[in-house]
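Hi W.,

Here's what went into the run:
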Amino acid sequence: QKEVEQDPGPLSVPEGAIVSLNCTYSNSAFQYFMWYRQYSRKGPELLMYTYSSGNKEDGRFTAQVDKSSKYISLFIRDSQPSDSATYLCAMSEGGGGSYIPTFGRGTSLIVHP
Amino acid sequence: ETGVTQTPRHLVMGMTNKKSLKCEQHLGHNAMYWYKQSAKKPLELMFVYSLEERVENNSVPSRFSPECPNSSHLFLHLHTLQPEDSALYLCASSQSGGGGSETQYFGPGTRLLVL
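Here's what came out:
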């Protein structure tokens, strides 16, 4: 079993839709959870960062962490064609454990006008 | 663009060539990383440097040789590569390379094609 599972997609939605992107993981020591967005031919850029369980909102983006289920989500409201990209989840133990993130394989999102 | 730059952006090389990838970070960070990104696969960590010392090497073949002369610069020297080494090579940096979570900032990558 891979440490971080993420459906590669592609996920195709119409403009204005609510998008839900998800990752599951097996390492219960993960405490830090991140979402990166990667446009074609570019490096990943940090989108959201969350510590432990709970929700975090930033504009149209909401990150949600459920440590009991080992499940994290990224919601995008009112999706735009400019949101079309690959979204990578990443997580790390931090503290006394490994600080280096483990990445999912990324989900390709296409938002069509 | 982020505060991490990479050159060249594209590279085509034969299996007998020797080339180097360069990364420079302008963020004042102390840790730098090399990743390999292949289609449909997760990011593969190759090397980690913290305060110019290598702290992790994820069993990377010796045909890849990193060099970190200072905390702002990172090189990846390539020699006698194989076609399966064709990928996007990403450089990243982070604040301290230890302690709490390390938010990584990525460069745009070098797209490498080995013929």
